[in-house]
Amino acid sequence: MSIQSKIEWTDTTWNPVRGCTKISPGCKHCYASAFAERFRGVAGHPYEQGFDLRLVPGKLLEPLSWQKARMVFVNSMSDLFHPEIPDDFIVQVVNVMMQADWHTYQVLTKRSARLRELLAGPLRFAAKQKHIWWGVSVEDVKYGKPRIAHLRDSSASMKFLSVEPLLEDLGQTEFAGLDWVIVGGESGPGARPIEEKWVLNILRACRKSKVPFFFKQWGGVNKKKRGRLLRGRTYDEFPTMEIRPIPDRAERLGMMALMESKFPLSHDLIQIGR
Ligand code: SF4
Structure pTM? Predict the structure, then answer.
């Protein structure tokens, strides 16, 4: 089973980790936390433990079971580079992406220093893969811009930004060397406002450096009402995707069996704690 995502810039979400902790102003109205906490204490529900951080080894092999090529948002309900997630587990997640390489993976983090560090070390084997896109979240100047610097500094081949929720004007920005920029406003109760001039500033920087630009939404309390038109049009640009052959069912089952035999972890949840 996979979740067909409603997020405009992906097809599917894959969550081998659940839960996270807040780190910066962009987390204030974290949709994942709000969703997960609704089910705290509901016996048998995937979010029975609310938004407490835990590994879900039973989900590791999921992409190998998907026959059609998809864009996969990795850990929409967590942050793969959270400090409490062991390096070994992150390596296993990335190993699955290496095996199931007919998909395109979008790995988005606010822990950009750890992303840079691991790409230079235990994840070096995946840094140059064109089907794995490494991204950082940017919400403002103070917290967001250092993340752009970490990403730029990293050995990642495919680099992207998710500038959402955009909370202020980013000022002078330089996007040369990046492969994709997504921009969006915050949605839901208490949504903080976004201004058109902030978005246009980012669009201009993307155009200057020939970086594909995706405008996700204006957001607000009723995001459908505000829509996603910017100056009368939508912006749905993506980087170029690699098309790779898709193994048949027997091959995929063989890959799953092989990987399963390598994983030392059981298929149970591993709770890390609050
Ligand atoms: S880093 Fe992402 S998943 Fe974690 S609390 Fe912040 S917004 Fe939520």
Answer: 0.94
